[in-house]
Amino acid sequence: MSGAHEQKAPLGVAAIGYAFMGKAHSQAWRNVAAYFDVPAVEQRVLVGRDSEQVAEAAARYGWAESATDWREVIARDDVQIVDICAPGWLHAEIAIAALEAGKHVLVEKPLANSMAESERMVAAAQAARARGVQSMVGFNYRRVPALAFAKQLIADGRLGAVREVRASYLQDWLADEDSPMTWRLRKETAGSGALGDIASHAIDQVQFLLGDTVTEVSGRLHTFVGQRPGPSGVEDVTVDDAAWATLSLAGGAVASVEVSRVALGRKNSLRIEVYGSAGALTFDLERLNELEFLDGAVPVAEQGFRRIVVTEPEHPYVGAWWPQGHVIGWEHTFTHQIRDFLLAIRDGAAPSPSFEEGLQVQRVLAAVEESAAAKSTIVQL
Amino acid sequence: MSGAHEQKAPLGVAAIGYAFMGKAHSQAWRNVAAYFDVPAVEQRVLVGRDSEQVAEAAARYGWAESATDWREVIARDDVQIVDICAPGWLHAEIAIAALEAGKHVLVEKPLANSMAESERMVAAAQAARARGVQSMVGFNYRRVPALAFAKQLIADGRLGAVREVRASYLQDWLADEDSPMTWRLRKETAGSGALGDIASHAIDQVQFLLGDTVTEVSGRLHTFVGQRPGPSGVEDVTVDDAAWATLSLAGGAVASVEVSRVALGRKNSLRIEVYGSAGALTFDLERLNELEFLDGAVPVAEQGFRRIVVTEPEHPYVGAWWPQGHVIGWEHTFTHQIRDFLLAIRDGAAPSPSFEEGLQVQRVLAAVEESAAAKSTIVQL
Amino acid sequence: MSGAHEQKAPLGVAAIGYAFMGKAHSQAWRNVAAYFDVPAVEQRVLVGRDSEQVAEAAARYGWAESATDWREVIARDDVQIVDICAPGWLHAEIAIAALEAGKHVLVEKPLANSMAESERMVAAAQAARARGVQSMVGFNYRRVPALAFAKQLIADGRLGAVREVRASYLQDWLADEDSPMTWRLRKETAGSGALGDIASHAIDQVQFLLGDTVTEVSGRLHTFVGQRPGPSGVEDVTVDDAAWATLSLAGGAVASVEVSRVALGRKNSLRIEVYGSAGALTFDLERLNELEFLDGAVPVAEQGFRRIVVTEPEHPYVGAWWPQGHVIGWEHTFTHQIRDFLLAIRDGAAPSPSFEEGLQVQRVLAAVEESAAAKSTIVQL
Amino acid sequence: MSGAHEQKAPLGVAAIGYAFMGKAHSQAWRNVAAYFDVPAVEQRVLVGRDSEQVAEAAARYGWAESATDWREVIARDDVQIVDICAPGWLHAEIAIAALEAGKHVLVEKPLANSMAESERMVAAAQAARARGVQSMVGFNYRRVPALAFAKQLIADGRLGAVREVRASYLQDWLADEDSPMTWRLRKETAGSGALGDIASHAIDQVQFLLGDTVTEVSGRLHTFVGQRPGPSGVEDVTVDDAAWATLSLAGGAVASVEVSRVALGRKNSLRIEVYGSAGALTFDLERLNELEFLDGAVPVAEQGFRRIVVTEPEHPYVGAWWPQGHVIGWEHTFTHQIRDFLLAIRDGAAPSPSFEEGLQVQRVLAAVEESAAAKSTIVQL
């Protein structure tokens, strides 16, 4: 059956997962219509494994019902949208089943834990798209107003030819070596460490901002804290806690990427610097309402990075919120994402980032791993 | 009748006003229970003068119904809380009626446009409180986590004896002299200009942070753009667009206050600096997730203002939201305010800031006006 | 005899005082010709009261000789310039004698400790000027490249009509209440405290940047630490350690000034913010190589305070130093001052700031004191 | 013959080169004794190729004489110190001859243009040292007070085990693609581009701060502007204008390095971030009087990067200058360098960084080039 955009009835949404991402997506579903003109939606059902906990989360986050079997839920006629916030190893199975059931699918990043899964998801998305069923991967930072505005400036040529990008994503929640073992630190469950979790965001941003594609990669992975206390004694950490990469882009730019979960003092610091022949930009997610822009067209004596408070009606998304200078929070990257997802569904258009774009990020991540395993030797994509 | 805290049934809320403040308060009512353990509430009715517009706003912001007559609404048995977001000149009448009807009342700041009204409101609040009916004035910036944390540090003696406070609230939405005349620029409707609108916040913060009371005031008011285009020709602006004051506090500190709506480039910049004998603090509302703290107990070679990203579980309010470094927005000052209001109702306790505290701010504002009219000569409170 | 500008022989310089200011002026005399094309000068003699210490200082700071009697020194034929770094209470006597002896005079700020002295100095300077003998008062911050550039931007109309100035000068060297008594804390020797010492700089900057004159003043003085340990027991501090003022300027701007020596964590922070109808500026002496400029002519979505690193050849003074981005230090405000003083002597022109300009600052300081003594009531100048 | 430290007569200094570095070194020689207690020195002779220009520079920068033949100068009995500011390709020849002539030698970085030259210089330095003749390579940024203080903090264990270092040195003087060809852009004269010029500083800092040695390297070089206008038509640029490297250190840390001369808007921005298990540091040469320090020993709610204004008497070097908060300039890194060089000569001790340390940096640079030529594959040192 076809997409939901002809419908007058509200779109029914099912969300799978109620932890960190489920909480963040729920707030977006609960609030999007208060700020944006989007098709009507209803938070129909929240899905989780523990029936008691998911019921409590559903009540708290505004869902009409809860359930424990995602297969039953995606079969429901009153569900038109499936929002997958489950761990990465479940993405492929659920997303493919949902798309085949004719449901629009939003899946959290990274697309999947493996290239094989990612490729199957792309195939399913392409088939579904032909039937008017849409899909999107949740690189929510594309919807930070400052970064969306940065992309506009670059696309408008305000930076000239982009030469260098410096992207880093530094956190410190694993800086303490006594911080305990979790599934996120085992390769079999997490796929990778900082690489998949946060380098994926940094790499997506590089490609998004430049509207360009990575063509070759040199990479390195490292685990600074190699063992951590587990429930039954000390365990080996089998994923990276920091990663480095140098990326070539098709258009000639070079990007460096550095990510870490042990960078003490950095809480959630995705920093991006873009240097072009005619301008430059910097951004830090810890100050997500700000963008620094240097305009090379200004006389040199007056040049400088200007701190733009990205809260003007002219800026992307943010006019829907509050008057100038009244800053928004991290959570609204999800609100904006769902706004764009819903508008794409309404218009029968393919939302971006598509699964194909998610797969392209996975390719870069895989190349970083391949290079890291081969003494950082450059890998072509 | 008594307070609502014994009730098991949800507390019914009526909000009066659906413009800027109504929108902000609505999001708080819609979301508070998703993040905080508060008594159950229901957004029963939104009240406004234009029946069509208020109906649309009610639908958008999550209210079950809309209405145009606030008197009818405060008489309803299914309404236990009245949230007043109407313009200042209506505060007294509505608040007093609601309190007399046994409804808990939250009223936006400033408490009222005149001292006389403010005093009547305080009397009504005191009478109601004796009957278990609570009231609160909406100085929402007390619930910025960084400022609540600042207050803790000061109360814990980390700054020693506070000597100087520098408070400024700078905006630029009236910087353009062609910006048109509005009711906010006429004394008869607005009471005052930047003074009542934003100096009230700055003054409340000074008293809140220090836990102290202003005892004398020297003030000055100025209107830089004296005429503006109105619908039928040029009109005189009859309120201040900037104000300055020097305040003495009972405990010996001196505070300077400067506010402006014509400070080009400042969007919503409430900046506060506090200097004590043992430490210092700085804050800027445009970066509301951050607090700068200098600890004088540290060896001098290591002293410096440290930028604390106020997003840790240990910080006030913010543990309910997202992991560290995931910043929140301006709007959640209202969410926190309603959380505290609801908890006070549940506990039968008087929430703060009380109407008395709102009146104390009004007294300072009136003293600034009095001093300004008398060549800045100091006025005792 | 006449000014030195026809001479081919080097100008002989005598400096009086070898403490903090003497050290700073010495480096300027020692280095100015290495960077700027100025008339040849020779550091002939350094004068101080203690013959041994002044001899050592002279050797260290590059002076050919030392002496203890300033009257003898200003009588010497090989001295054409007298640079007065002695304490304020000696300024008038030395400066007037030197001018009458036909010597060009540079005197440290503030011009003098009293209005009467200042007025006599102005009379002497006017008489000397008629004979080609120049004089200057050392408001060295006029020669910070960033502030000189700020003045250019304002003079060029880039800020439009200036409305508000916020000037503060915060230090913390007296924050510790156990810091001992000194002559600087006694009214009879120091004249005033933070007011004369640092508010003088702030007030001079306001008038300098705007090219305007203060016409009325409301002021306040305060002493937070009223007693300090002296050599023979606890003594009363008889000068202010903090001061506040609101200033009206002839052109319609309003400036606030706040200075303190007890603002813990602020080392030498002269901060200036200027808000105009078309642009805005901010500056902090602790980052003296930077100027923040907001250009209101830029589309609003791109507006922001831009951090200009003031080290380009196009910027005032700084092209003589190092390549861009190689920052200069505080001391070179004196080097630039002496460069301009020497060029004025060479050209037979009156250097700025003149003694008249120094007197104008004294008038404002006196008005602050007068207002402070009269409950902050506005005083007209 | 032996070192000069027993002498009572002033040490005679000859400097070779009077361009950018010669000007900077001259100011250090001219001023060092005014601030530090060092052996007496005399600026005897400045050497350059153009007799007229060098004579003018000598007069301007305080040298007693000028000369054009460095061989004659290093043979003079009244010269005890040779300060080499000539281009890199001359370093080896002059330094070796001077050391053999018994002169103490200070040579600008990088040590030489090739490994072979560097090794011969080290051999000469070792032989001379045995005879009491000292040598030093001019990595002047070791003498930035903030970086010297950073090293202290790290050495004192305040950062715990250092894990990650992020070092970048970004400039923009070649950002304009019409900027003309110079000898610095030809491999035969410059050796390399940004790599030797500025990555050398970044790499030296990494090893200096950590007191550690690089053991393996992955590198990349790139030339964004491949052709530039020369005097007789367009020429190929044969050196890099940007470089990237990932470095392993013996102690387990990983450092990333990125340098560029085309990073628009960055004037002279050597930025360093150091993340350890117990603390973190950041620094930017454009704000060289500041160090940011995060102390992980502080309770997490109070942690933050604190901006230390490195101008206290307790801080390295800076107590000799001005009172707190009175910032110093870039040039004084050279003054401090010469102070330490002179003290080492006085004490008969080997100054640091030695030629061996300079050689170690050269080895890392060579490894970066080797890796870059081999698809970024890791090279062991």
Automatic annotation (TrEMBL), chains A, B, C, D:
Pfam families xref list: GFO_IDH_MocA, GFO_IDH_MocA_C3
InterPro entries assigned to the protein according to its UniProt record, in alphabetical order: Gfo/Idh/MocA-like_OxRdtase_N, Gfo/Idh/MocA_oxidrdct_glycsds, GFO_IDH_MocA-like_dom, NAD(P)-bd_dom_sf
Residue span, GFO/IDH/MocA-like oxidoreductase domain: 150-281
Keywords: NAD, Oxidoreductase
Ranges where the Gfo/Idh/MocA-like oxidoreductase N-terminal domain occurs: 12-130
The protein's name: Gfo/Idh/MocA family oxidoreductase
Species: Sinomonas terricola
